[in-house]
Every structure is written in structure tokens, then in C-alpha cells.
Design goal:
By secondary structure, the protein is α+β, with helices and mostly antiparallel strands. It contains 2 helices and 6 strands. It comes from Loxodonta africana (African elephant).
Amino acid sequence: MGTYSTFLCLLYLCGVLGTGLSTSPTPRRLHCDTCNFAKPCYPVPTECQDDEACGISIGTSEQGESIERRGCLPKSQCPLQGHATYWLRSYTLQHCCCEQDLCNVAAALQRLPSPLLTTPLLLTASFAWGGCLLH
């Protein structure tokens, strides 16, 4: 193989040929799950725009109802509160954004059970275990 052929092979292997002789990699867009407020959620993988991140938006109404939406969000909206209307109810949205492929696949941030539920369970468990330990 001649010097010129060796040079072309090295350029090809280094990725210079076939990319318009650009040395900087093309930015790759994020892929996120998209699912509107409907329950149950049947997410669809979606490619975001360059200025977007994956997000989960959790909405709460004045009546205490909650809704959840997943999808691509403009990065500028991530730290801000939002508002949405769903089934004639107004919801205040909190956005949680991430910047990795399909990072919004998991259910929204796991909420701790209500203290009204956990307190009796913890007391019952401690009495049951404590009673066994005292004997």
C-alpha cells in the first residue's frame, strides 16, 4: 500500500472522511419518553430539539389532584413553574429536567407515603418487634 493510500485509510479510520472534513463531532440530540397527562401513560420515544432536555412535569390543582407529563422541554423552562389546563382544571406544573437519553423513563420522583399512613405502620411494627425483644 502506498503512502497516499495509507494516509487515506488513517483519515477514514479517524472519522475525518465522510463527515465533510469536520473535526468536531456533530452534537447528538437527546431521546426522551413522551407521554401526555392521560392515565395510563403509554410513552413514545421522541427526539428532542437542540435546545431541549428530557423532562417530567408534575402538575397539582387547587383541589389536590395531580397529573404528570413527560417529554422534551426547552431548557429555559426547566427551572420555572408552568401552568396547564387539563379537563377544565388548572394545574401548577413543576418541571424536573435531565440531559441523558431516556432519563425521564422512570416514574416521576417517588413520593414518600403520607405521614398519616406511615406513622401507624411504624408504631405497630415497633410494638410488635419490641414486644418480641422484651421476652
